[in-house]
Every structure is written in structure tokens, then in C-alpha cells.
Design brief:
- By secondary structure, this protein is an alpha/beta fold.
- The protein folds into two domains: about 1-135, Nucleotidyltransferase, domain 5 (2-Layer Sandwich); about 160-360, Phosphoglycerate mutase-like (Rossmann fold, 3-Layer(aba) Sandwich), CATH 3.40.50.1240.
- It contains twelve helices and eleven strands.
- Strands 8-7-9-6-10-11 form a six-stranded mixed beta sheet, with helices on both faces. A five-stranded mixed beta sheet has the order 3-2-1-4-5.
- The longest helix has 19 residues, at about 280-300.
Length: about 350
Amino acid sequence: MKVIVEADGGSRGNPGPAGYGAVVFDADTRAVLAERGEGIGVATNNVAEYRGLIAGLEAAAELGATSVQVLMDSKLVVEQMMGRWQVKHPAMQPLAARAKELVRDFRDVDFTWIPRDRNKHADRLANAAMDRQAGIEPKTATKAPEVVPAWTGAQGEPTRLLLLRHGQTAMSVDRRYSGRGDVPLTDAGELQAEAAATRLAKLVDPQTPIVASPLTRTLRTAEAVAAATGGEVTVHQGLIETDFGTWEGLTFPEASAKDPQLHSRWLSDTSIPAPGGESMDEVHRRVRKTRDDLIARHGGKTIVVVSHVTPIKSLLRMGLDVGPSLLFRLHLDLASLSIVEFYPDGNASVRLVNDTSHLAD
């Protein structure tokens, strides 16, 4: 599928309160397929423009695009992405690297500079994001705007995800790669699941959806939650753990010894898959689609999500709006609880990370 991405960013002060906007069009019909816009705090115009580009490329990837034409009115970003200008500013180097990483996922990407008056759609989204960030509500003829605290800018009722990692397994005890292999909880893991369930029973009611990965270790953990809360468990395939391919069941040193160069690259480049498995970028795109599906089904509600390390980290990464380095720097314990909220206007809030207080003796 071929799409057109138009992206923009702005700063009211340069640096000052900043935001970005991005829109994805069908290349043949010009139908709008996706829109993105977010305030990013205090930043420069160029940083905001890169953030808009990244958001547009991520949206195109989520749609399954293979060919992308990027149109931007930022000469600097276009020339840097084409490799004709160097990226010298330290604040833009990681953003340019992230954009180039996304570009590699497509069959082909073309960058074209356009005049500002041809980039009005993305510019409108960027300005609307900056307005929301400042607490400025859009004017409507039929309804008075809801008063929103300016320090968040978030609007509407959030979808609240209570993210629970499964309990202990024999694979986790031995610190082995445990992805699609279907292993049961240990006795200790069963106790961890029950302790987490007791904690969650104080936070939710029987009507709260409980959605789990299809593997035994997550289903058993979810069943403990259902028994404590009176809820029902449904399965979502998108919450399954990373496919580690031929590294499944190996320890870290064993995988490194088996494929030393590939393993080393895999630890620093999220676009590289394990042999016969998935890359972390592929998992992130899968989990983003799963998040969107959960919000479409249960928008504005609380959902208990029982899953694995990588999908939970991916959901927290979306909530924090940060790059893939979080996958390597964030630790999540067995049976830990994290909480993230996603608002209908595109804002998000991470409320809790890796809480294991319910496991204390």
C-alpha cells in the first residue's frame, strides 16, 4: 500500500511551547487514513518537526504501508533525511536516528519539500495540539468546552490499562528466553498470581474486562484475577510475548554463544529479529494495534491486561511517548503491576510502573 505522509511541527517561542501534527493519506484517493497531533512541552521548531515526521511514519507503519511519500515544509528535515545535510544539533540526532530507523521498515520512502501553504492539514493538527497543551479549548457552536487543567491538556475519559505481568515459571527461574513456548506457572508463580489478584480486587469490579495473552502462564494469572474479582477472561492474540525464534529456551549466554554477532546487534537495534522470530519493532507495532483495538472495544473504561514483559513495556513506551531504548532500560518483575491511561485526544499518563508491593511478605 502506498501512502502520503504530511508532517509539521511548531514552537511558540523557538524554543517554547511546542507541538507536532501528522496526517496519512491514501496515495490514490487522498482519503485521510490517520491523524496524529501532540503537545511536547518546551522545544524548538526543528525538534517538533522531527517529532511530527516520526509520528507520521509510525502511523504509516501501523497501517501496513509499504511505500511512503513524505511531504514537509521543513527544508532542514527533508535535506537531513535525504543525507545531503548533516545532523549536528544534539537534540535532533536521536530523533533523526529514530526517523531513519522507521524508514528502513518500508520498501521505499521519498522525501519532498513543499511550501508552507501546501502543508495546512499537518500545520492545523500541530497548532491544535499546542492549543490543547496550553489549555485552550476549540470553539464550538453547540457545546461549551470542558474545562481542563492546563498542566496536562488531556481531554475526555481515559481508557485505563492495569498491566499485570504473569507469575513465575521454570523458564523465568533459569532466566531463559521465554516467548511463544507454552510453559505453566510454578507453585510460587501461582501464589504470585493470587497475591496480584487480591490487589486488583480492590481496584476493579466484576464488570471490568480482563484481557490476557493466550499462553498458559498469562491465562492462569488472569484466571486468578477473575476468581478474585468475579470478572471474565477474554484472550487477545496481540498480547502474546515476542517470538524469540531459535533462541527460545536458551539462556542469555547460550544465545550469545550460538549467534554472537547477531545477538550483539539484536541487543542494540530493535529492528533486528531473533533468528526465525520477531523484532522488537514488529512487536511494538503489533501491540499498538492491540491497544487501539482494546480502546475501540472498551474506550473510557478500566481494563485488566495480563501479558508479558515486552508487550507491557511497549504499552508503557506508548504512554511515555519515548523511543525503543526504554525496552532495554526498564525492568519489570514477575507479577508486577503497572498502570497507563490513554485519552481520546491522544494524550496519555503513566500512573504506576513495576509495583510489587502485593508480593511483600
